[in-house]
Design a protein that fits this description.
Chain lengths: ~350, ~350, ~350
């Protein structure tokens, strides 16, 4: 059971309810009115817990798990231990996500403006918001309904936030228009000046950064990630993008819908990503490029040219994935021959 | 036009004034008393806007731009659309920077100490400063004239800040002496302990970090960047350095004047960079090295040896740029042959 | 002498006391009752200062140093300048650390709850704590004795902190159980949601992150580092780990005791490190791996497979260090031949 100091459990739920919630199909002979009380990892789950198997690395844990109910792909069903009820899904991780959300639902914040929060008289905060201690909302900012603004977070002058957003503690937003259901983790920095200046031996001359950051709906941005505002055009993050911790996004960058950007990736100025691009951890993308929809960029790759839609690349400088695998194989073979 | 919620427009300006401000030469037959009202990107600029062309990738946008006036290099003049006035400059980006600064001038802060700011009685804050809500200035700190200290920023014990500095929201400074006209972006961390300890199987033993961070004039340090204080000597950042987001600078590092350090670069302890060194995004530099003045380090390079002044290096471990290009070409050819 | 605005000097100490404190052996003929007043780097040390030599790069500075006393390895003794007293130790850096700690001892905080700090009535703060201005301690949090909570730091709901911890300014902790003598530097983010969601073209579905971050005793975590809480299991940081600035640690990661993780390293979800693993700056480790005790990972390495205990690896994808050195040598030779 999740630590009750931090998490609030809902339920219990019947098997047939969990099947409906998840879209998965019961199997293994369990009664539809069997009742489950919680979710748990395979290793620690007990008879009243729901667990899941998604990664083949953990089949052994599945085979010895004490979970009463497990969400799995149909082809894994015959590996289940005796007595375990199953929910079969072609996408067990997604089905499990639905179930875990039912047991641990997101609840609307308890409305509050902490006495040490600061709300400028010229700011607008809609009903149902919670402003934690030390939160600051500056002049002209407009905060939608049921938003949480974490302790010591700062919403800058003129920033617009939609409904049901969460701004983590100590996060900072300026020069930004943000949609609804956006989650900004602690320490996120949005809207500061881009890295724009005219270099020269007599000193570098700052170029005013006159754009904004425009963020769609349902976006999540990880802890201590940084997104600079545009230099003239806007920096744009499309609906449903998932951005991990410590990611850097430069000025004028545009991300399409549903991009997945893993931790410590850096995307340089004016580069545009299509919808559902995925970039692995610590990858770097040079400025002024076009990355096509559905492209996949391996961890630590260094992308220095445009990438076609759907292409998968790796290495630095990044090449098609098969080429990169060949390069590393050839190098490895040469080194072993030499050794 | 830049979003008035975030930016305040000055002007308008006559063509001859803009020529003087930027040092560029009018061309294209426009009247010196033609008036321009704003700056804008090539794609969205209209007849009263000033735009610029600096990157050849955007020549097509230049050729179809509706901008009334454009700053360009002389050799691009004949590609201008009919009716567009021009300002010719060998460094159009720098000339544009001057013009954009005129339209969107930096203004001195409106002096204020927010009621929820905390200023220790033993701190000194000069005239004209603005301390936003939740800002903290600790004992012995000395803040120069016309500084802005952002909301929930923390100026630690004994820190000295020159005149006209901006400290971003939620930034933290300790153990540091900082010049004038320095801009620290939100979430910057300056002056914490360096990563210094004596390793051992019985546990790692902390070595007191007894130096400071000394920062020159006109330096900018990007969001969530971290600069550790010296272990005994100081960590030093020279005048006019431009440091991007999420950069890590270890203890005892010295940067000369005008260095440009792009996002997510890491510089390990006791390494010294000469004047005007440039390091591309995600590059890493090992400790105890000397990087000569004017050296250029490619993005993602891994520098493991001293670099001569003016040298350009790439790859990991970093080698002269031409060697790195050859290495990647050879590897690519071998992989394709094999394929 | 360290800047008295930032550091408070103890002492002076006699040579025999320093020998006892450091476990080092006097040599060079100095009197046991010679007295030393401070520590200083080799270059600036004077007759009353203690310095040290640990890195052979600095032998020349040693040979010309004016330090009255120097901690060195026995084999360096004959290079000492005339008149310098010596303390001989097989681990001079560690011996110096003991001496520097004596001159600049860590002192317990002066207890205080700043008027602008916020302590929830349902939080527990033990005796001897110092809560700086703007610090926030939320409901259910339990803070041990003699802890410092820096200005504008946020201790979230239910978080447990042991004794003698330091939480840096603007740091954020949630969903975490933390041991004693832990130092969290400014801007650290601990306990936020891991990067867990079921990807899909219809949108990515968040998976509730139901674990915690569990941190042992004597751990240090660098500025702006991020440690996500577990998805179901906990994220665990073992006793005595040293984690540098801007490090990313994903959900469910486990670090053994005494690991050393240099700046900007990223460790992906569910990977486990044994005791005393060392990872160089900017290295990346893929998820779901096992890294054996005592393994060493070179800077910028990209680890994509399990690593055996004690193994040293480099490169991306990471291979045994000798193989990586051969690979880079071969590539270099081919490029030069071609050139």
């Amino acid at each position: 059971m999740a630590d009750p100091r931090f998490f609030k459990l809902a339920g219990p739920f019947r098997l047939d309810a969990l099947a409906e919630i998840s879209g998965a199909t019961p199997a293994g002979g369990a009664s539809p009115d069997a009742v489950f009380a919680d979710v748990a990892p395979l290793e620690s789950a007990g008879a009243s817990d729901v667990s899941f198997l998604d990664n083949r690395k953990y089949v052994a844990s599945f085979q010895t798990s004490g979970a009463g109910l497990c969400v799995v792909a149909p082809e894994m069903a015959d590996k289940a231990p005796a007595g375990m009820a199953l929910l079969l899904s072609p996408d067990p991780y997604r089905a499990y996500a639905c179930i875990a959300q039912a047991f641990y639902p997101v609840v609307a914040p308890e409305p509050w403006v902490a006495p040490t929060a600061w709300v400028d008289p010229a700011a607008t905060v809609a009903e149902g918001c919670r402003l934690e201690p030390g939160a600051v909302v500056q002049a002209g900012a407009v905060i939608g309904r049921r938003c949480r603004v974490g302790a010591n977070a700062v919403i800058g002058v003129g920033v617009v936030l939609g409904d049901d957003c969460t701004v983590g503690a100590n996060a900072t937003i300026s020069h930004a228009l943000i949609g609804s259901r956006v989650v900004l983790y602690p320490g996120v920095r949005i809207g500061q000046d881009g890295f724009g200046f005219a270099m020269g031996p007599q000193g570098h001359l700052k170029v005013p950064q006159l754009g904004r950051v425009v963020i769609g709906n349902g976006v999540e941005i990880g802890a201590n990630a940084t997104i600079d505002r545009g230099a003239g055009p806007d920096t744009v993050i499309g609906d449903g993008c998932m951005i991990d911790n410590l990611v850097q996004i430069g000025h004028n960058v545009q991300l399409g819908r549903g991009c997945v950007i893993v931790a410590q990736v850096g995307i340089s100025g004016s580069t545009r990503l299509g919808d559902f691009v995925a970039a692995g951890g610590q990858a770097g993308i040079t400025g002024h490029l076009r990355i096509g929809a559905g492209a996949r960029i391996a961890a630590q790759a260094g992308v220095m040219r445009d990438i076609a839609p759907g292409e998968t690349v790796g290495g630095a400088p990044a090449v098609p994935m098969t080429d990169w695998l060949r390069q590393t194989a050839i190098l490895g073979k040469m080194a072993r021959k030499k050794g």
